[in-house]
Amino acid sequence: MEGKALKLPSFKLPKIELPRPTRWDFFAIGALALGLVLTGANLAVANAKAPGEPFPAGLTPLFITGQLIVCCGGLLLLGKTAKEGTWWGNLASIGAMLVGMSGVLLAAALWAVA
Fold it and tell me: Mean pLDDT in the chain?
């Protein structure tokens, strides 16, 4: 037994093949990114205003309409990506719908509080 090295059994991870994103997946990812940018801009405007100062009246309809477009666009893109069978687009479309809906609620809540 002296001088012999012990060999441990080799362990290899299984090879996972990810599907390549299609054109519609990138549209869905773009819609999700747009919704996140609108949400961030809404929060930035809300944090930039002084306490007690009203929320800019012209920006509220802009944020609400933009987030509604993102939400409805995410729903339409979900139909297209589900038909193609790509899960990248499915996840991004569902994310765009959720970000759009929550962005509408955020914009309405910030407008109501101010």
Answer: 87
What pTM value is reported for the model?
0.80
71/16 Cα distance (integer angstroms): 32
| d(C-alpha 25, C-alpha 100), whole Å | 17
Q: SS3 for 52?
A: coil
N- to C-terminal Cα separation, the chain: 80
- Those residues whose C-beta lies under 8 Å from the C-beta of residue 68, and which sit 6 or more positions away, are 100, 104
Q: Phi/psi class of residue 33: alpha, beta or left (left: φ > 0; alpha: ψ in -120 to 50)?
A: alpha
If we measure between CA atoms, which residue out of 74, 69, 64 comes closest to residue 42? 64
What's the rounded Cα separation, in Å, for the pair 104 and 99?
9
- Which residue did the predictor score with more confidence, 72 or 48? 72
Scan for tokens 């549209």, then name that residue.
27
Q: Please state, in angstroms and rounded to a whole number, the distance separating the CA atoms of residues 80 and 61.
A: 28
